[in-house]
Design a protein that fits this description.
This protein has 13 helices and 8 strands. The chain is of the alpha/beta class. Helix 3 (47-58) packs across helix 5, helix 5 packs across helix 9 (233-249) and helix 6 crosses helix 10 (254-265). It comes from Neotoma lepida.
């Protein structure tokens, strides 16, 4: 569900919409008459117009069209039963490429996702028909995208102010963009998990006249440029193709370039996975134990032999604990630095 900003809804809109739904749970008379849409004066299909404008907008993040048209590389694209095929074909055309080769078994939309065990791009090799290639993680691709988008910006706008440039990532993602930002001088911001927070923050930054080059979440969600304020696999596909074509002229593979990025900005390695659990009480028990590990309201300080330096629990909002921690800090500052008794200081309050 999207707000007028073009980004997914965030609070308070989500709660207000849910409240309205709960106030009117009975379907209206005629709700199941699907012919009503044909006679509604509100009916409009903007798809073709939006598609045309989107493809036109893609030109803003195409930097080597002539090179793309001459590349000897061949690209294979699979939507694995999504709806991206037509748009990726058009996007490659905009960038000057020959059409990417579609994977016939996975090209067309199929709600049963009949060629995969789990229709999740995070599964990597297990969802791709061609599984003997190097499969990059979301964090690895983000390192390449971050390097590429900034490198292209720098070459096309050499006199622009780098302090006006931003990149974003969510808290569950690699900190590689932060490392690039620290070295290159642009801004990096971290948001809560979910592209709704990225989209909302980008809208704010654009309103302040800032330039956002790239944003991502590690679960294969990328946004190059700001044509849309949500994850966009179409632009990501064609941008990575242009990146590969450019690197090929320098006899460098994507894997080799990733190593160069790490060499320059620091190695950021991660391994992400997940367990399946269909029993909410079990999930609650696991996390309650972590939040009350050796004593009530205490997080673990060690995990086996590894010391835990920092815990960020974005699901609890333990306000009482924060207030208690703040009071301890205030007391320490007063006692150690201001020394009111010794210096005869009087509290304002």
């Amino acid at each position: 569900v999207y707000w007028e900003t073009g980004a997914q809804i965030t609070s308070p809109h989500d709660k207000e919409i849910l409240k309205c739904i709960e106030e009117c749970v009975e379907p209206w008379n005629g709700s199941w008459n699907d012919n009503l849409v044909d006679t509604s004066p509100l009916k409009k299909d903007p798809l073709q117009d939006i598609c045309k404008r989107y493809m036109e907008d893609l030109k803003k993040i195409c930097f080597y069209r002539d090179l793309n048209s001459k590349t000897t590389l061949k690209f294979v694209h699979t939507s694995f039963h999504g709806v991206g095929h037509d748009y990726v074909q058009l996007a490659f055309q905009v960038f000057g490429f020959k059409p990417p080769i579609p994977v016939p078994e996975q090209k067309d939309p199929d709600p049963d996702f009949s060629t995969v065990k789990c229709p999740n791009p995070e599964e990597g090799e297990s969802v791709l028909v061609f599984s003997h290639w190097k499969v990059f993680t979301g964090n690895e691709l983000a390192a390449l995208f971050g390097w590429w988008m900034f490198d292209c910006w720098k070459k096309t706008k050499p006199s622009a102010d780098v302090k006006n440039v931003y990149m974003l990532a969510t808290t569950v993602s690699s900190k590689i963009l932060k490392a690039i930002a620290l070295k290159e001088g642009f801004h990096f911001e971290e948001t809560l998990p979910g592209f709704k927070w990225i989209g909302s923050r980008i809208k704010d930054l654009l309103g302040l006249g800032k330039e956002v080059l790239f944003a991502f979440e590690e679960s294969i969600g990328f946004l190059c440029g700001t044509s849309v304020l949500d994850k966009d696999g179409v632009s990501a596909a064609v941008v990575v193709a242009e990146m590969a074509s450019f690197l090929e002229t320098r006899k460098v593979t994507l894997t080799e370039q990733l190593a160069k990025v790490y060499d320059k900005y620091g190695y950021h390695m991660s391994k992400t996975s997940y367990f399946l659990c269909y029993d909410p009480p079990t999930i609650k028990t696991i996390f309650e134990r972590i939040r009350n590990f050796e004593s009530p309201k205490e997080y673990p300080k060690f995990c086996g032999e590894f010391a835990i330096l920092h815990v960020r629990d974005i699901t609890t909002g333990d306000t009482a604990l924060l207030e208690e921690e703040l009071q301890k800090l205030i007391d320490a500052l007063i006692e150690n630095f201001l020394e009111p008794s010794k210096n005869g200081l009087i509290w304002r309050s």
